[in-house]
Amino acid sequence: MSEDDLFDSEFLDKLRAMFLRLRKRKQLRRKGIQRSPSAGLTREFKDYRHYVRQDDYRSIDWRLYARLERMFVRLYEEVQEFHVHIIVDASASMSRPFPEKRRNALRLAVALSYLGLISGHRVSLYAMRERITELLPVQKGQGNIQRLIDAVRKLEFDGATRLRQSLASFRPSRQRYGVIFLLSDLIGQNPDLVDDALRNLGGWPGESHLIHIFHPLEQSPELEGEVELVDVETGEGRKMWLTRQDLERYTESFNAYLRVAERACLSRQVDYLAWRTDGAFDEFFLELLSRGSVLAGKA
Amino acid sequence: MQFHYPHFWWLTLLGIIPVSLYFFKRRSRTVAVSTMVFFRWLAQEHQESAWLRRLKRWISFALTMLLFLVPVFLLARLSLVPFSGGVRNLVILLDRSASMAAVDQDGVTRFDAARQLIRSRLQALPDQVGVALVVYDSRPQVIEARGTQRRALLAALDGLRAGPVAGNAEAALETARTLARLETPAEIWHVSDQPSRPINDEKVNLVPLSVALPKVSNVGFTAFQVRKEPMQTSRYTAFVQVAANRAAPGPVEGRVSGKLGEAPLAPRSFRLKPGDVQGFELPLSGVKGQLLQLGLDVSEDALELDNSLLAALPESRPVVAVRVGHKEQVDPYAHLALQSLVEEGELRIWSVQPENWPVAGVDVAIFDNWLPEQWPADLPVVVLNPPGSAGPIRARSLGSAGLPHREIQAVAPDHPVLFRVSSSRVSLTQSCVVESAGPLQPLWSADGEPLLLAGTVKGQRLVVMAFSPRQSERLPMTASFPILMGNAIYWCAEGHRQAESAGLGGGRTGELVELSGGQLRWTALGGGELVREVENLDRSVAELRRSGIWEDSVGKSGSAHLLSREESDLVAFAPSQAMVERRVGPSLGALTGTVLGFLLLILVAEAVLFHRWSLY
To answer: In chain A, what residues touch B34 (CB-CB under 8 Å)?
Structure first.
């Protein structure tokens, strides 16, 4: 897939249209469930109204009183400013053998970044492999979207994921309190450790979202017969004789893995959303934002 | 094992296809996966071991090869029958005697089993082999001459059934052998429940095919006769003999019951060990024409045909005897005894002088102290006190005094001549010495010398009394002497009056009788009821092939019954026969359904392995 296919004009137009739809949805106008500390709080003038008794006299606009000889009180609008962290799993399993996972992950990262920038938030972009590394410095302002897109385009997907170590190493400071999006297939070295690995998400400062991306053929592979399997991350090879019953057992274990991940997130108040790559992007994106994100609330 | 159409074996080359596919599929494809952790877990938890997968793979390959090979087997007509290679002529010799009507536990007769066996074996036979069908009971009959039309032969086979006639395998085998030798090399399939004797013929191979039951029990009538009681009016005695087969697994209990007209007879119970024979005398009181029905009531009896008898009481025409002797030498006690018999009305005695001999129209001749120079060739004779030798008699007179014996020994007490004759306390005076060699059997003897002899000479019965009643002390004055005289006359007359004897005692099925008119009317027992049928004849000689009473258009009548010790003595499947049968084995023709079912099973197994379990 070429890079132009990732963020073509059609995709960007669709992104803008979605933001317009978001503004009209009342439920998305509510504040997020998390309160922000005062460090990010600003006050902007909104309107005047007549002074009544019991109003704070310090809020009377004396200049206006001098001109009109009537007392008015200044009204201010409270504006919150968040830090949006977007972590993209950049291991080889996100790109091969199903490149749809990479495309969807990157599109979602760009969409979330765009939403954050256009809402006046600060946006940080990270890549997760054996550890989580920052792709580019904190961005703010709508004009930086192209810089984010360029950084995403250059992102290489290789290496193996060490889920537990990576998530444990990510510790955003209190000054960067905000919303954290983790975009990953959660495929690590050992499926039994996923619960332990996801424990770190609960300790992150702010609202955490885990978007679990997987391909339909990862859930239900069509590999009956004798096959030689090669792991895309480690290069490990294994000859197997797969029957239909084996594949049914595989699917059962994969679904169980999804349930374990969801349960681990819910128990730690982390929003979990599984995303099959054959699902429509815009529907999924709206679904993601409708689940009570503060990011959506300010859009 | 051989193949009738081996050229179909070229089709086995099609097996190259599954072999190629088998080796082609051995290469596994390489697939890049991102979820190796799950496949690794699957391999640890649920994947079968390598040897089991290899075994499944081999089974799958074997099933695929069978799918190719079994149709080739069917097309090539695999035969497990050891049919001699190059045989061009086959004679099927089928036993249809009474024993083939024996049924197994499912009610299948041996004849039906034989028919099924022939049918299945014929299916495995090459089409070019000519087949003839010969059936036999008392006589062989060629049903189908040699031909290759199996359908006509099978249709003829379906129309046959076993009947109440004794079998004669010797004559049938000879007929089959004659047919087989018309075109050699040939084979004879002798299908019977009886053991088959081998034949010495290099060009004809005899294959005995036994359809005998492995375990069989049977009791049947093996002898039957109705006699008029001497000196008694309207009194008869029925003699019946029942026998158990030697192969019976244990003793058999049963009873003989019946009725005369509508009057039931007192039943007689019996218990027979395997191979035992027992006789019964049933006194009857009836008139001419009354039907006598006798039946056997035995549990676990395999053969029904020998369990019933049906006969009509005959008209008893007086026996006519002529007494020949010089008037002055006639024995007065013998005269008195004969006179008492005449008074009963069952016997007529004519007395003539020797110069008037021979006399026509008599049944028995009584030579009293006289012998003719030319012995009668067509007349039974009772000789009293022979004066010398003549005809079959070799005797020498002991003079006028004779030789008295205080007591005698009964050598053959069961002989009909001694029926109800007391042999004890009898004193006799021997009047002549008679040579007992030859056909004459001594019945009484004293000090080693025969006093009473009986036998059959050139088809005519002969009784010789080598004593003088006049000079004997006790015998002439007892009741036994008239009985002895009467028995002797009746026994002699019985052989002479063949036509009446058929009515009295009953004939055997399979015998030939001369008939007049174009019809033969049968009265037989069927399901306990009397059944009457008419058989149209196109010849004057008929074979009695049914059991019951027959009568022709002019009133000639008689009865016919199986009465065969050989047929009632059902044999079990002997080990030697079993070996023959195992060697013969089933034919693939009979297994066609099984083979097709096996093929279907393979297809199902293949479907399950490939589509259900995804076995490659």
So the answer is: 92-93, 96-98, 185, 187, 215, 218, 231-233
